[in-house]
Structures are given as C-alpha cells and as structure tokens.
From TrEMBL:
InterPro entries: GH, Glyco_hydro_1. One of its GO terms (biological process) is carbohydrate catabolic process. Belongs to the glycosyl hydrolase 1 family. Keywords: Glycosidase, Hydrolase. This is Beta-glucosidase. One of its GO terms (cellular component) is cytosol. Pfam families: Glyco_hydro_1. It comes from the Bacteria.
Length: 434
C-alpha cells in the first residue's frame, strides 16, 4: 500500500473566471460578448461559485481532501485603475476564512488568465506599465489578506502565451497543407472559422478596448519576447511586494509542462522544447519558495518533429493523449533543475466517463508517489478541476470536474472521482491496471 505523508496536500483547483460567474469587468467578459467572438458561448453565471463556494469547499472536505487552489480575480478587486473594491476583498476574506475553518490549506493564484478590462486598454501584457500595476494589486491583496494565505502562485502558466504562439504557427502550417491533426482539437481553435471572423472580430476588439486592435494584448495572446520578459518581471515584482508585506507567505509561479519524449532522431526537438517551456525561465525563479507544475499529457518527437497521434492512440475529450504517467516524468525532469518544493497545481482529464478519471488520478498519483520515494520534494497535488466549468473558448462542453453541475439549477453532483481522490489521503494508492 502506497501512502502519502499526513502533511501532503491533496485537493482540487479552480480559476475565478471559469467558475464564479458575472466577472463583468474582465477582458474575457468583454471578448466573450463582442461581435464575431471566438468564444463558443459566454461565461455568464458560470457555475455560480462566487455565491456557492461554501457548498463546493464542503464537498471537497466531505470527500477527504485538505487543499483548495483558487484564484483571486484582479478584475473584481480593481475594476477601475487605482480603485480597489473593499467589498470584493471581504468576499475573498470569507472564502479564505471558510477554508481555515474546514482545515483546508488555501493555495491562492493572483492571476489566472483573466485581467481587468482597463489593463488591456493600457497596453496589457506587452506593456511595461503592467509590471507596476500588477505589483500594486498584489501588494494590496497581501496587505489585506496575507495573514490567511500560506501559498501564493503569482501567475498561472506563465509560459502559455509562448505555447499558444507555437500552436498558431503550427495551425497556419497545417492550413497550408490542407490537413489536420489533434493539436487544433486540443485548444478548440479552427483556422477556417478564425479567418471568416477575423475582420469583424478585430474591429470589435479595438472598439471594445478603445485602442488599435493590434495592441490588444490579453494574457493568452501570442507573446513577443518582450511580452515574455514582462510576465516574468511581473512575477518578480509581485514576489517582492508579497514578501515585503508578509515574508512568511510561500511564493511561486506555475508552468504548463508537457512530457516531451524522443524517438531516435528527436532528441534535439525535446531539448529545444524543454528549454523554451521551462529552462529559459529559471533565472527569474531563483528566489521563489516553490514551483507549480501543471501537466496533462505528453508529446513524442521524432526526427521530423512532433509525431501525430494515430487511430490507436487513446485520447481524452480534449484530444490529448491519455497518458497519466506524463506527470511523473515531468516531475523528474523539473527536479533535475529545481531543488526546492514542487506542488502539482494542475493535472486532470476531460472525459464523460468518470471511471476514466478515477483511473487517471490513480495512475498519475502513483507516479507522484514514486517521485517522492525517489527523493523529489513534491508537497502537494491539486486536481483540475473541482467543478465542470467554463473552458475559455470552448465554453461548457469540456468536463474536467470532480463535481458535475446542472447549470439550469446550479445543482452539484459529486462524481466518484472526487471521493476517490479524497480517500487517497487515508487509504493510500492501489494501482489500477491499464
């Protein structure tokens, strides 16, 4: 029987915009509602986690979990530049206090993709001014709530803009060849759709944010090298402000990391991907307390680059290869370059078959346990996601949650996978056969 130590954190994660609902001051709310929107549907009430957080956290507790990762929404805290909303701070204070009442460790993310609308109008994530703005926001939140927050992830998936740029470049190549592969399915983008809507969409973008549409830089926009630098400078500024205000808070950042595997001749591609996804960022992380690792699948590289899935590849609903062992492999790779604590801040699967999720959790956490036995300092695991939620451009069709939600009534339906995850704390792991 494989058991985690009592202090190991096991739980689930959410992101504010995806679950809270009515995040009306955010850039994503704006982009969801403009003419020609690239979003399948608007977020609207989402799953009303803003009002139902106690019910949702209680379900997590009842299952046996002891950790909840969630984000504080910048667009709620600072809906207008320089004006902080005390009512919203009190809301998140209540969320944090409820976690502590239930002996749940909160892991707070300061920025999980969505930004205030005004920030984008000011230049967004390609502007130097964002560094100061983000620092001010993090300072304010820490001054108000820092005594309730043991762990802070400054930015979620700091490398995502780079990954999106790669995906779009590949999509353009695919379009030229009039072929398709699973990568496009994964992110829910369609080049034909995009081309048809582009002119209307970009005109509406510019009008909505009051700037040239070429200067609309949301966090998920493909990044220039300067944009990459700005994100990491935002992280450094946030860490400085948080630590100055409350040095006891453990500060880190999260990265989206694939398990890159090489076939003969593919080694150079793996090295390049690992450098661009993670190693390039290491100089900015030296003063961090922990690292957030997020993994969903693997990529196999041959002598000509990424090897496409075939008809025999087991896929998730998102089009990723079903490969829970990717997580352990990524942790081993990271540990070669990082000797401080690691938290698995996201790992999961979109599927309508919950037995697949149970199997995925068991196999993924078996890999985590093996890494710990090998001496890798993994201190926690938060599954994505606590709730079926709003998956950005894909809307509500994808089902990553441990809890299903009937959005017509907002009724919660915990899945077997939730109790399975929670029981691991007491029961330990029993490897499910593939």
């Amino acid at each position: 029987m494989k058991k985690f130590k009592s202090e190991f954190m096991i739980g689930a994660a959410t992101a504010a915009h995806q679950v809270e609902g009515n995040n009306v001051h955010s850039d994503f709310w704006t982009m969801e509602h403009i003419p020609g929107t690239m979003y399948k549907e608007p977020s609207l009430d989402a799953v009303d986690h803003y009002n139902r957080y106690k019910e949702d956290i209680q379900l997590l507790v009842d299952a046996g979990c002891n950790t909840y990762r969630f984000s504080i929404e910048w667009a709620r805290i600072e809906p207008t530049k320089g004006e902080f909303d005390k009512h919203q701070i009190e809301h998140y204070r209540e969320v944090l206090e409820f976690c502590h009442q239930k002996n749940v460790t909160p892991i707070v993310t300061m920025h999980h993709f969505s930004s205030p609308k005004w920030l984008i109008s000011e230049g967004g994530w390609e502007s130097e001014t964002t560094i100061e703005y983000f620092g001010n926001y993090c300072k304010y939140v820490t001054e108000e709530l820092g005594d309730l927050i043991p762990y802070i992830c400054t930015i979620n998936e700091a490398n995502m803009g780079k990954q999106i740029a790669k995906i779009m470049k590949k999509m353009q190549a695919v379009q030229k060849n009039d072929s398709a592969n699973s990568t496009e399915v994964q992110v829910g983008l369609n080049m034909d759709d995009m081309k048809a809507k582009m002119q209307t969409y970009y005109r509406a973008l510019g009008e909505a944010f009051g700037i040239d549409p070429r200067n609309v830089h949301s966090f998920l926009s493909p990044k220039t090298q300067n944009g990459e630098r700005i994100i990491m400078k935002c992280h450094e500024k946030a860490r400085e402000e948080i630590k100055t205000t409350n040095p006891d808070i453990q500060v880190g950042i999260t990265f989206s990391l694939y398990d890159h595997q090489a076939l003969p001749g593919g080694e150079k591609f793996v090295e390049q991907e690992q450098y661009e996804d993670f190693l390039e960022y290491l100089p900015y992380l030296q003063n961090d307390d922990f690292l957030g690792v997020q993994n969903y699948s693997r990529k196999i590289h041959g002598p000509d680059g990424i090897v496409s899935n075939n008809e025999n590849t087991r896929l998730t609903k998102m089009g990723y290869e079903y490969y829970p062992e990717a997580l352990g492999n990524v942790l081993r790779f990271v540990s070669k370059h990082w000797n401080k604590p690691i938290i698995v801040t996201e790992n999961g699967i979109s599927t309508d078959q919950d037995e697949e999720r149970v199997e995925f959790i068991d196999r993924a956490l078996t890999g985590v346990h093996q890494c710990i036995e090998e001496g890798i300092d993994v201190i926690g695991y938060t599954h994505w996601s606590l709730l079926d939620n709003f998956e950005w451009q894909l809307g509500y069709a994808q089902t990553f949650g441990l809890i299903a939600v009937d959005r017509s009534t907002q009724t919660r339906y915990p899945k077997e996978s939730l109790s399975f995850l929670g029981s691991i704390k007491n029961r330990g792991l029993v490897q499910i056969q593939e």
